[in-house]
Write a structure and sequence with these properties.
384 residues, nine-stranded mixed beta sheet, Rna Polymerase Sigma Factor, Chain: A, 2 domains, alpha/beta
Length: 384
C-alpha cells in the first residue's frame, strides 16, 4: 500500500453531468440478439455517437432480481471498442470492463474527452490493444429502466443486481471467463469494489475512481435520501405516474449539484445572486430532461452497498483513485487509508484539488487523471 499525491491542475467543469443525464429519454428497442446493432430513437446523444464503437443488446428472459422480484425480459445494452485477443488456450485475455456513474451510460464514456484521454492510440487503454466493454447498467441508458413503461412498477434493483447482470453479460453473452481489468467511476467504482470481492479469481486488476469501500452513509446518504424524499413527497409525482417533471425532482437536483460540485469551484462559479439565479436556472432546464423515476431508482439502489467486510477476499491488484475536494467521498474520513491494509495487493492515491477543480465531477475530466490509469496498467505488467 502506498499513498502518492499529484498536483495536476484542474479546470472548471460546466454542465458535463447535465449532458450525461440527457441520455435518459425513451429509446427504441433494438434487435433481440447479442451482436446486433442497436437502433436508438433520436436523442441529444446521437450527435456524439462514437463511430468506432459496436453496440448490441443482451436479453435475459424471466430474470429474478435479488429481492425475488421478476421481469419477463431484461435488456442490457452495451458497446465495445477493440478486438478480443485469444491466448493459447483460446480464452480472451485482453478484456477490460469500463463502468459508468449514476445517471450516465456507455455514451458518456465513449465521448471525445474519454476517447482522447483513455482509449485512443497510445493512451492507457488503447482500443488497438484492449477489448473494451461498456455496459449500460440496469436502470440506465438503453438498458431496461423504469421510464421504459413500468414506471414505479419496475423491480427494485440494487448494486448487487447491477453487478450480477454485468457478470452475465461478460460471461454468458460475450463468453469471457477472465477480465484483465475493470475501471469504474463513482457508482461504477462502487461496482468495481463489488466485482473484486464477488469474483476474486476472475480479474487481474481493479481501479475504482471516486468511490469508497464503505456503506453509503453520512452526507452521501443524506443527500440521496433528501432527493428521494423530495420526489416522493411531491403531489405531482403521483406514485410514479406523473405526466410532467415533478417539481420535487427539480429541488432534488439542486441538492445534488450542491453536493457533487467542488466547494471551491462553486465559490468561483457563484460569486453573487445573479450568478446563483443563472446556476439555478440551468439546473431547472437540466432536471426537466431527466426522468424522476429513473433517478429515484438509481439512488435508492445504493442503500445495500457494503463491501467493507469482504475486503480481505480481494485477490486482484486494486488501485483506488479519489480526489481530495470530493465531498461525496471526503478524504478526511481516512477510509481508503484504513481499508488498504486489509487487501493483499492495494494501492491508493488521493489527487489534490485546486481552486477551480470540480470535486466529484473531476471523474468526467479524464485528462486530469488518465496518467494514473497508465500507472495502474503498468502495475498489471503491461508495457507502455
Amino acid at each position: 500500500m502506498n499513498l502518492r499525491r499529484t498536483g495536476a491542475a484542474a479546470t472548471a467543469l460546466l454542465g458535463l453531468l447535465s449532458g450525461t443525464w440527457l441520455a435518459s429519454p425513451a429509446l427504441a428497442q433494438s434487435a433481440t440478439h447479442a451482436g446486433a446493432p442497436a437502433s436508438p430513437a433520436a436523442s441529444p446523444w446521437d450527435q456524439r455517437k462514437n463511430p468506432d464503437a459496436k453496440e448490441a443488446d443482451a436479453w435475459f428472459d424471466n430474470y429474478t432480481f435479488r429481492n425475488g422480484e421478476t421481469m419477463a425480459r431484461v435488456r442490457i445494452h452495451y458497446s465495445t471498442l477493440g478486438t478480443p485477443h485469444r491466448n493459447k488456450s483460446g480464452g480472451i485475455d485482453n478484456a477490460v470492463l469500463v463502468l459508468h456513474w449514476t445517471g450516465a451510460d456507455s455514451r458518456a464514456l465513449l465521448s471525445p474527452s474519454f476517447m482522447k484521454a483513455l482509449f485512443d492510440p497510445g493512451c492507457p487503454l488503447d482500443a488497438n490493444r484492449y477489448y473494451l466493454i461498456f455496459p449500460d447498467s440496469v436502470g440506465h441508458g438503453r438498458s431496461s429502466k423504469p421510464s421504459d413503461g413500468l414506471k414505479a412498477g419496475f423491480p427494485n434493483y440494487d448494486y448487487g443486481d447491477i453487478v450480477d447482470l454485468q457478470h452475465k453479460l461478460v460471461t454468458e453473452t460475450l463468453g469471457i471467463d477472465h477480465l484483465h481489468a475493470i475501471l469504474g467511476m463513482s457508482m461504477g467504482g462502487m461496482n468495481a469494489w463489488q466485482w473484486a470481492e464477488a469474483y476474486p479469481d476472475m480479474v487481474d486488476g481493479v481501479m475504482p475512481v471516486v468511490s469508497l469501500p464503505t456503506p453509503v452513509s453520512g452526507r452521501n446518504l443524506l443527500w440521496r435520501r433528501m432527493v428521494i424524499d423530495s420526489i416522493r413527497s411531491d403531489p405531482e409525482w403521483k406514485e410514479g405516474n406523473y405526466t410532467q417533471t415533478p417539481r420535487g425532482w427539480m429541488v432534488g437536483y439542486n441538492i445534488l449539484r450542491m453536493m457533487i460540485d467542488g466547494v471551491s469551484a462553486l465559490q468561483h462559479e457563484v460569486p453573487n445572486d445573479m450568478a446563483a439565479e443563472k446556476f439555478l436556472g440551468a439546473n431547472r432546464a437540466t432536471a426537466e430532461h431527466v426522468d424522476a423515476n429513473d433517478i429515484l431508482y438509481s439512488l435508492k439502489s445504493s442503500f445495500s452497498y457494503d463491501p467493507e467486510l469482504g475486503l480481505s477476499k480481494i485477490k486482484a491488484k486494486l488501485f483506488a483513485l479519489n480526489f481530495d475536494d470530493d465531498e461525496f467521498n471526503p478524504d478526511r474520513l481516512q477510509i481508503l487509508q484504513k481499508a488498504a491494509p486489509k487487501i493483499a495487493h492495494a494501492r491508493y492515491l488521493v489527487q489534490p484539488g485546486t481552486a477551480t477543480s470540480p470535486g466529484h465531477f473531476t471523474m468526467t475530466q479524464p485528462n486530469l487523471w488518465a496518467p494514473h490509469v497508465g500507472e495502474f496498467m503498468r502495475w498489471l505488467g503491461d508495457s507502455p
